[in-house]
Amino acid sequence: xxxxxxISDRIVIPAAxxxxxxxxxxxxxxxxxxxxxxxxxxxxxxxxxxxLPDPLRARAxxxxxxxxxxxxxxxxxxxxxxxxxxxEAARARLAALLRDAIAPPPPxxxxxxxxxxxxxxxxxxxxxxxxxxxxxxGSHD
Length: 141
Description:
By secondary structure, the protein is an alpha+beta fold. It has a domain at 5-102: 2-Layer Sandwich (Double Stranded RNA Binding Domain), CATH 3.30.160. The chain contains three helices and six strands, in the order ββββαββαα. The strands form two sheets. Strands 3-4-6-5 form a four-stranded antiparallel beta sheet. Strands 1-2 form a two-stranded antiparallel sheet. Strand 5 and strand 6 (72-77) form a beta hairpin. The protein is elongated and about 85 Å long.
C-alpha cells in the first residue's frame, strides 16, 4: 500500500517520505491479539520534506511545534483490529492534520462598536431587573 498521500489538490506527499512501523496493539483482537502487528505508527518528516513549499512548511512547523519530535510528525492508530484499517486511519488523520496546519490564517477580526440602541436596551434590562429585586426586599421594621 505504498501510495502517495493526497493532502490537497496541489499538495501530494510521495510515499517515499512516509515511514510506517507496525507493532502489537492492545485491546480487542481475540486469539490474534498476540500474533498480529495491527498497530500502525505513520511518520512524516515535515522539516526535511520536499513535498511542501517553503512558506507552507514554515507554517506547518509553527502550528505543529508541540507535536513534532526533531521535525518529525508521528501518528499512531490502533483502534481497529485489522492492520489495513489502521493504516488507512493513520493516513487519513495525518492528511487532516497537515491540511489544518497549512491552511491560511483567518482574516483579522474587524473591531465593531455596539449600537446605541443595543446599549440602551441592555441598560433598560438591567434597571428592570434591579427594580424587580428591589420589590422582593420588603420592609424591615
